[in-house]
Input
Amino acid sequence: MKKVYLDNAATTKTAPEVVEDMKPYFLEKYGNASCLHKWGQEARDAVETSRELIANKINALSEEIIFTSGGSEANNLAIKGVAYQLKEKGNHIVVSEFEHPAVLNTCRALEKKGFEITYVAVDKQGFVNLEQLKNSITNKTVLVSIMHANNEIGTIQNLEEIGKICNENDVLFHSDCVQSLGKVGVDVKKFNLSLATFSAHKIHGPKGIGVLYVKKGVKLCKQIDGGPQEFNQRAGTENVSGIIGFARAIDIITEEDVRIMRKMRDYLVEELLKIDGTSLNGSKENRLCNNVSVAFQNVEGESILLSLDDKGIAVSTSSACTSSKLESSHVLKAIGLKPEDSHGTIRFTLSKYTTKEELDYVIESVGEIVKNLRRISP
Ligand SMILES: Cc1ncc(COP(=O)(O)O)c(C=O)c1O
Output
């Protein structure tokens, strides 16, 4: 049976070059980077070289890179770290209503502790309402957190514009850049970012390693107590092999990969929209090069997903199925999609390994499946 993996927003295949680079740090160079002996120093050197490489890619300084266990931890550290550090100054945070759960649930946890959160609306294409954003900033606001690219619909925000608003209002600006890294240029200075979140496993790196960029001078309340690792901002023995893997993954990304993915994405969109009763979710122009989110009217997304899985094709629905009821995705709700379109939405996410032959197989399979499902349940 053919196997086609189109769920690269969930996670990606680890690139073989990445695995090769990581291997010695399991088998030979396994020292703890905090130790003074040669094993430790070898690991330390590798960590610092990787830190510098990652910093250069986002126009940051080495000492502004904090390694974490992934994007979720980095988002927690950024938001809770600022909230608790600046609680004497203010207790108000502004986020968009369609952030990743690692941001939204962090905010909900803070609300329970007495912090105030404003959830700014997005429009039909998934762009943050900048007027509402501006108007929601008060003298109690300490942080604005807006994701760079949305993980479900792929819409890319204008971070430069949002950065300007934050700068003019003298509030810290955090962005979850997990989905945009390697696909859209991330320049922390150009965007006026105070904090930014990244994760390796979305760019063909290993799982369980992330980065929080923390602008020099920004102070955070530590969320993991322990040793003095990561400039005393995040305790725990460094995940040396993961850090090496992250650096290699970011280093092998090319503009050509992005160009090809964009071309393939456009082909997939064009072909899928030929099926009756379909529409594209999110922005057509400012969209991640690998994201195709399509609403199929009068079909259940889960049924399409399972039928595609039977054909060896991995995709994702944009709705989360809780144990008792089918809930619409908060992202699709935020862009104003009707519940029936939301329930029929499928997210296809490509990678640099995706081929045109694979897409042709997917296009043919989706056409057949949707037709059959609509026939069974008109
Ligand atoms: C936008 C976004 N933020 C954060 C995360 C969480 O990252 P991690 O899986 O590394 O914890 C993800 C991953 O699903 C994501 O897509």
